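Today's session is about reading a structure prediction critically. Students often jump straight to the picture, but the first step is always the sequence itself: look for stretches that repeat, for charged clusters, for runs of hydrophobic residues. Only then move on to the predicted structure, which in these notes is written as discrete structure tokens rather than atom positions. Here is the chain we will use throughout the hour.
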Amino acid sequence: MEEIIGYAAGILTLVTMIPQIIKSLKTKKVEDVSYLMVVVFALSMLLWVLYAVLIESWPIIITNTIAFVITCVQFTLMVKYKKSK
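Below is the predicted structure for this chain, in token form.
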């Protein structure tokens, strides 16, 4: 039961960035997305993965690794679509 809850929580965490990625891809605009939020979210995912490795929790390792990759995709879109000033 604990692993099911772990996977459910992890899946909800990793999908949080997906609507923003879809919007960024459709509009090619990222001005309203906070760089700080994306960076902090990515760092938190890395720390969760480190913690999960230490306690050997596969649900946390898997879902937060995927969430980190998704967050990196959003960051890449932010750099790609950033308006030049």
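Discussion point for the tutorial: The CA atoms of residues 42 and 68 lie 5 Å apart.
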